Amino acid sequence: MHHIRFALAFAILAAPVAALAIDPTAAMPPSAKRVPHKLEQHGETRIDDFFWLKDKTNKNVLKYLEAENAYAATLLKPTEKFQETLYKEFLSRIKQTDEDVAVYDRGYLYYSRTVEGKQYPIHCRRFAVKGPRGPGEVVLLDGNELAKGEKFFAFGERRVSDDGHLLAFSTDTTGFREYTLSVKDLRTGKLVESKLVKAPMFEWAADNKTLLYTTEDAAKRAHKVWRHTLGTPKEQDELLYEEKDELFWLELAKSRDGKYLFHTSVSYGSTEQRFLASDKPDGKWQTILKREADHEYDASHRDGTFYIRTNKKATNFKVVTCPVEKTDVANWADLAPYDPKVYIEGVSLFKSHAVFSVRAGGLSQLIVRNLKTGKSHSVAFGDKPYDVALSRNPEFDTTSIRFRYTALAEPDTDYSYDMDTRDRKQQKVKEIPGGYKPSDYVTERVTATATDGTQVPISLVYKKGVKLDGTAPCLLYGYGSYGLNMTMDFDPVRVSLLDRGVVYANAHIRGGSDLGRTWYEDGKMLKKMNTFNDFIACADHLVKAKYCSRDKLAIEGASAGGLLIATVLNLRPDLCKAAVLKVPFVDAVTTMLDESIPLTVQEFLQWGNPKIKKEYDYLKSYCPYTNIKKAAYPSMLVMTSLNDSQVLFHEPTKYVAKLRTLRTDKNPLLLRCNMDAGHGGASGRYDHLKEVALVLAFLLDRMGITK
C-alpha cells in the first residue's frame, strides 16, 4: 500500500508559539446592505435587515457570498503553508489504498475499497468460495467513475435483491440530498433502470422484481410509499401509502430474516409501523399498533414472532414479543423488561440469538441473549471512554456477529464474535501509518457541574507529557440535540492537534442520549437551555481544572451543534478564544416559522412551534440570530454550503452579516461558503481533508500555534 510518510517534528512539551499569522486588518470585511424586512408574530414585529440574503438565485446574494469567500481567503492566506503541512500530515496517517473487511451475504463477500489518489470508494463483491463459478472481484459501483464531470457526488443507499442479481442504488450530485434511484443488473453490468425517481429509501420484495420506494414532498419530507415493477414505466407505479400528517415522515425497512417489509410513520415522539410479507408484495399491509402520543416503537421478526422495542411505560425502552397475528398490547410479553439504568437503542435478531445495543453509565454496550436458553451476557470492553456498535451483519442463520470498537486514542478495530462460545477474534485494526501508538496518549472522563447541579460528563484525550497547569490549548466539541450521542471514535486527523499539545474534549451535554432517554428529554423543547448551560459548565470546568487556559480554549459545533456554539457565545462571549461553527442552525425563530423549509414542521417536536406563544417566546429567548448583541466576540470561522438542504445557506450568511454590525471586537470573523456542496461539505475524501486542514489551521493559529 502506498502512502506519504511524514515525520512530525514537534516537541509536545514545547509546541511552537509564534506571532499569529491571521491579521484581521489585512482587508476590509464585506458589508451586506441592510434592507429592513418586517416579520410579525403574536402581535410582535421583528425587523430582519438581512432577510434578502435568502435567495440564492439573486445575483447580489451570490456576489456577497463571493466577497465573503474572498475576504476569508485573504485573511487565511498566511496560513496556506500551514494548511498544506496539516494536509500532508493527514495523508501520512491514512492508508490511502485500503479495503474493508469483507462481509458474507448469500454466497458472496461484499466490501469497499479505496485507491490512492481517487476521491471516492469502490464497492465490490466476489464469490465466497474460489472455483469455476465466475470471475474474482466484480466492481458493483465505482464512485470515481460515477462522479466524473460532477462538482459533488455522494452515494445514498444500496440494496441487492434476494437472488443477488440486481443492485438498487441511489446517488446525489448536488449536495441537496436528493438521491436518485437506479437499478443495475450485476450479471450484465448494465443499468436496467436509470435515474428512475428521487427516492430517499427503497427495499426489494422477495420476488426480485418488485421495488418499494419513498418519495418526498416540497419540504423534503418522505411522505409516500410506492411499488415499482422492474421494466414497467414509472407512471404505472402504485401509490401504497401517503402520510398526510406533516409531523411524520416515512421510513422503509426489511426484517433481517427477509420475511417482512415494514414502512413506518415516524415523528419525534410517536411511531406507527405497518408490515407485509415480502413474498407477497401485492398483499395488504397491516398495522402493528396505531400511533398514539409519546409512544415510539419498532419491530423486527423471527420465527413467526415480532420483537418490539417500545417505550410504552418504559422511558429507556424495553423489548417485548408477540405473535405476528396478534400484535395488540394485550398479547405482548416482556423479553427484556424495563431497566431505568439501561437505555436500549436497538435490537438485532438472528436465528437463535438477539443482540441488544444499549447504553449504561454513559457507555455503549452489546448484550447477547440466547433465545433458546434464555440466558444473556454482556460483551465486555472496560470502562474507559469508547464506542462499540454492530457492523453490517446480513446473515440471519449464524452464531457469529461482527462489531466495531473505537476510542478517542484507539483506531477502529473490527471483531468477529461467537455468541455461543464468546470467542472474540480481531479481524482488522485500522492501520495508521507513521508509527502511531495509542499508548502515547491519555484518555479520561471527568464531570462538570451544571447550574442546576447536574453532573455533565466530558471525555478527554491528550498526549502524555502535556502539562495540565492551565497553559495547554484545548478544543471542546459539542452537539446536544435530537438524542444523538457524542461519539468517542478515533480520528486520525485529530492527532495533528494532540501532537501539538492540544487537549481534545467532547462535552456529553443534555439533548443527546449519552446518559439515556431522560438526558435527551431534558435538553429539548422548553428545556433546551440545559444544553447551553451544560456546555458552558464544561468549558468553565476545563479552565478551572487547569486542562487549559481561557485564552487558548476553542469551541466547535456543527449543524444543531452550530446553534449550540452561537447561543453559548451570546450568553458568554468571554468563554473562549476562538470558535468554529459549521453549517450552523442559527436563525431558529424565522426558520421554524417557515413551513416550506425542509425539516421545519417535523421539528416542532424538537425545538417548539413558534406559532404557539409560549414556545415562540422560549425559542426567541435563545435563538442565536435574534440575540446577537453589542459585545466583544472571540475569533470565529463560520462554514456553510450553497446547496445545504438541512440548514439553508442563508442562516449562517445572515448571522455573519448581522454580527459584523454589532460586535465590538476586532477579532477575525470569517464566513466560508462552499458553492458546490451540501450539509457535509466537500464530498471527495481529499477535498474534505483540505477543508479540515483550513479549519485546524485557523484554530491552531488562534491558539498561538502557527506551524
Textual characterization of the structure:
With 707 residues, the protein is of the alpha+beta class. Among the domains are: 31-92 and 435-702, Rossmann fold, CATH 3.40.50.1820; 345-431. The chain contains 12 helices and 39 strands. Strand 21 (305-310) and strand 22 form a beta hairpin. Helix 2 (80-92) crosses helix 12 (685-702). The chain is globular. The two termini are 29 Å apart. Mean pLDDT is 95; it is low at 1-18.
Query: Structural class of the helix and strand makeup?
Result: alpha+beta
Mean pLDDT across the residues is 95
CATH class of the domain at 31-92 and 435-702: Alpha Beta
Could you give the count of β-strands?
39
CATH homologous superfamily descriptor of the domain at 31-92 and 435-702: Alpha/Beta hydrolase fold, catalytic domain
Biggest β-sheet description: 8 strands, mixed
Overall shape: globular
| Oligomer state of the chains in this structure | single chain
CATH architecture of the domain at 31-92 and 435-702: 3-Layer(aba) Sandwich
Structure annotation, total helices: 12
Cα distance spanning the termini: 29 Å
What fraction of residues sit in β-strands? Answer: 25-35%
Poorly predicted sequence stretches spanning 5 or more consecutive residues:
1-18
CATH fold name of the domain at 31-92 and 435-702: Rossmann fold
Strand ordering within the main sheet: 32-33-35-34-36-37-38-39
Gyration radius (Cα, Å) is 26 Å
Share in helix = 10-25%
Topology summary:
Blueprint: E1 38-41, E2 44-47, H1 59-76, H2 80-92, E3 98-99, E4 103-105, E5 108-114, E6 122-127, E7 138-142, H3 143-146, E8 154-160, E9 166-172, E10 180-185, E11 190-198, E12 202-204, E13 210-216, E14 222-229, E15 238-242, E16 249-254, E17 260-266, E18 271-277, E19 286-289, E20 297-302, E21 305-310, E22 318-323, E23 333-336, E24 343-349, E25 353-360, E26 363-370, E27 376-379, E28 387-390, E29 400-407, E30 410-418, E31 424-429, E32 441-449, E33 455-463, E34 474-477, H4 495-498, E35 503-507, H5 517-521, H6 529-544, E36 553-558, H7 560-571, E37 578-582, H8 588-592, H9 604-607, H10 613-622, E38 635-641, H11 650-662, E39 669-674, H12 685-702
Parallel strand pairs: 34-35, 34-36, 36-37, 37-38, 38-39
Antiparallel strand pairs: 1-2, 3-5, 4-5, 5-6, 6-7, 8-9, 9-10, 10-11, 12-13, 13-14, 14-15, 16-17, 17-18, 18-19, 20-21, 21-22, 22-23, 24-25, 25-26, 26-27, 28-29, 29-30, 30-31, 32-33, 33-35
Helix pairs in contact: 2-12, 6-7
